[in-house]
Amino acid sequence: MKPTLRDPDPRPEALARRLYEEHGAALSRWVRGRFTDPRVAEEVVQESVLTAWRKFGQYDPTRGSERAWMFGITRNVAASRFQRDRRHLRVVPTDTVIDLDVDDAELAGVAERSVIADALRSLSDDHLAVVAAAYWDGLSTKEIATRLGVPDGTVKSRLHYALRALRAQLQEREVLR
């Protein structure tokens, strides 16, 4: 790795250390506001510094400050971690075994509703608002437009893209084919 004016030390570990020392605290504060588990927040910061270290040759100071570049990397790492965590079930240790008397069809229905609810949570607020108004409240696009204070065409567009996103989410979760 070629040292820059700011990095006269050619040792790669010196660059990683400098990136962490100069930006780590600010990145940590930002990440802790987005993740409740402090261990996950620290992992995101460490992965961000490691990514920046690996890709430091791509940093272009004419496009912005090093701190802004680091925050861009951290935002991407945090988004990837958030998406990855949402897709995986978490094991909760328990000392007692809960015996539920539930049939398979009922359990499948609960699981499917849970996956659908998760897919709905992935929608933006604007898209969720039109889906809820159309399918739960049974409103027409004109009624939704009046309620939300947006043009009818905007409601139709949001509904189209929301349903498209939902379909993609459900296909990814293998609820739809």
Describe the structure.
Helix 2 crosses helix 3 (66-87), helix 5 packs across helix 7 and helix 6 (141-148) crosses helix 7 (152-172). It is built from seven helices and no strands. The protein is an all-alpha fold and 177 residues long. The protein has two domains: 12-87, RNA polymerase sigma factor, region 2, helix turn helix motif (Rna Polymerase Sigma Factor, Chain: A); 111-172, Arc Repressor Mutant, subunit A, CATH 1.10.10.
Short description:
The chain has two domains: 12-87, Orthogonal Bundle (Rna Polymerase Sigma Factor, Chain: A); 111-172, Arc Repressor Mutant, subunit A (Orthogonal Bundle), CATH 1.10.10.
| Spatial separation of the terminal alpha carbons | 47 Å
Radius of gyration: 23 Å
- The percentage of residues in β strands lies in under 5%
Please outline the major beta sheet: none
Q: Which structural class best describes the helix and strand composition?
A: mainly alpha
Whole-number tally of structural domains: 2
* Percentage of residues in helical conformation: 55-70%
Tell me how many strands there are.
0
Q: Overall mean pLDDT score?
A: 81
Low-confidence stretches: 1-5
CATH fold call of the largest domain: Rna Polymerase Sigma Factor, Chain: A
- Counting H and I runs of at least 4 residues, what is the number of helices? 7
CATH class of the largest domain: Mainly Alpha
Instruction: Identify the CATH architecture of the largest domain.
Output: Orthogonal Bundle
List the helices and strands in order. HHHHHHH
CATH superfamily of the largest domain: RNA polymerase sigma factor, region 2, helix turn helix motif
Rough shape?
extended
